[in-house]
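seq:
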Amino acid sequence: MSQVSLLHQAKQGDANAILNLLNQSLAFKKVQIVVATLEDNCLQLKLEGKHGQVPNQHKLIPFIKEEITSLRLEIVHKLELEASVEGSDTAAWQASITLDEHTNRIAEFTHILSAKTDEIEPEEVSLELRAKRGEVAAILELLNQELEPKDIAAELRLDRGYLQILLEAHYALVQDKTVESIRNKLIEARLPLVKKVTIYAKKTDVNIPLWHQDFKNSNKSISNNSLDSSGNSEPTHQPESSSILNKFFNRNLF
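struct:
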């Protein structure tokens, strides 16, 4: 099932879809949700800590609340959590949370995202949440935290889970380091709507890109961009024709 389909099913109240989406975000937390049920607007989650670790209650409760808000699951009004160590039948802790504030924030997000004006976003709508909703401007702002200190300009396009990034600098960008930096930033941001990424790099005032690289946006951090066995990273070092970029971006970027 595609990421968009998962989001649609989750908003319709599919507990398994909610489980899958939340587990994607929990990949770095050494915890996973093993059971999810939704009844009478109450989402019940059973969590298991990996490697013999007890799930961190103080960190996980606000994290899961924020994830539910970012996914705009209006059907969820209450959370009931039960956490244990993997392989244990004894609960380490339980929690019950009413999401009144969450419901109000969802209404605000829905209004903001559907508005056609260019009004300033309220402070409570974080950059990270806007990026998760697929706002290209927010994704660009996140990437610019890495790129601007290096004097790299970027343009983005996001279409049906496919994020294309055009980088431009006055110097030749080192492919391995550049791709690693961007990929890890995307992984850190946990963007559920971004499934595949292509990065193009060019020098200022040069029409032909120096290189481009494709990779899948997974939850695994990288230390280099060598091609792995699953095909998650596909480096291409030779220059590409500018017409290819024009085709992807549907306009003359150069």
